[in-house]
Design goal:
This protein is α+β, with helices and mostly antiparallel strands and 246 residues long. It is built from seven helices and seven strands; from the N terminus they run H-E-E-E-H-E-E-H-H-E-E-H-H-H. The site of zinc ion has 5 residues, from loops.
């Protein structure tokens, strides 16, 4: 049984619970989906709610796991079945501080077709440079589609590579970032970008003709920790504080 890396500030636990509720309020998660954050004091631990609908998450629901996804200090509450998504991305990507997994509906079609997801506007600049598609069948054949063990998490992290977002065929997507705020921003704007691309494809009829951001435009416009990303978080966080008091 792994030991806890130590207590976490109440404000951080509240931010993780708020992130769960923000993602629900923005239509990124519904009854399913989850967000996690690396432990601020220990790179080999992460924090994640127990298994429950994200909109119901309270700060007291946050659990601590090691990167094998075992709960610390014998916490016997039920964790999410797909927590291996988070553990293996944290293991593979030292630059990642937070991960979001969702089944947001506008994104799913791009994991089913050959037309790639493109960065259709500046708030989704982080998508420029490519959005890989993880196909769980490549390594694991026929499954229930869930990333429910370490080996499947490893395969997903490999497909993600060094990118901020990966699609999961016939399932959903993952978004990650250096901070909780950036991962939430990217998850929200991946869903918005998918809607914009559907509208653009309805007009254009051809993914090849979309005037989306170039790789270099994406690099220049991807400033998640500067004003735009922070402003969005401050707004969304305030809405949750007004509802919950925390
Ligand atoms: Zn899932």
């Amino acid at each position: 049984m792994p030991a806890s890396a130590g207590p976490v500030a109440p404000e951080i636990l509240a931010d993780i619970a708020a992130a769960s509720r923000i993602l629900a309020a923005r239509g990124v998660v519904d009854g399913f989906g989850h967000v996690s954050m690396r432990h601020p004091e220990a790179s080999d631990r992460f924090l994640m709610p127990r298994a429950l609908a994200p909109a119901l998450t309270e700060p007291a629901d946050i659990m601590e796991f090691d990167l094998d996804c075992a709960a610390c200090d014998g916490d016997d509450r039920k964790g999410f079945l797909e927590r291996f998504i988070h553990g293996e991305i944290f293991r593979a990507r030292p630059d990642v501080g937070a991960v979001v997994h969702s089944h947001s509906p506008s994104v799913i079609p791009f994991g089913l077709v050959t037309a790639p997801m493109q960065a259709c506007f500046h708030n989704a600049a982080f998508l420029a440079g490519g959005v890989p598609v993880f196909d769980i069948a490549c390594d694991h054949g026929d499954t229930d589609m869930l990333v429910s063990d370490n080996a499947k998490g490893v395969a997903l992290a490999r497909a993600l590579g060094d990118r901020p977002v990966a699609l999961m065929r016939a399932h959903g997507s993952v978004a990650c970032g250096p901070t909780l705020q950036t991962a939430v921003f990217r998850a929200v704007y991946t869903e918005v970008n998918a809607r914009v691309q559907h509208w653009a494809l309805a007009l254009a009829g051809d993914a090849e003709t979309l005037a989306s951001l170039s790789d270099e435009e994406g690099r220049l416009a991807d400033q998640p920790n500067q004003t735009a990303g922070r402003r969005a978080w401050d707004l969304w966080r305030r809405e949750i504080r007004d509802q919950t008091g925390w």
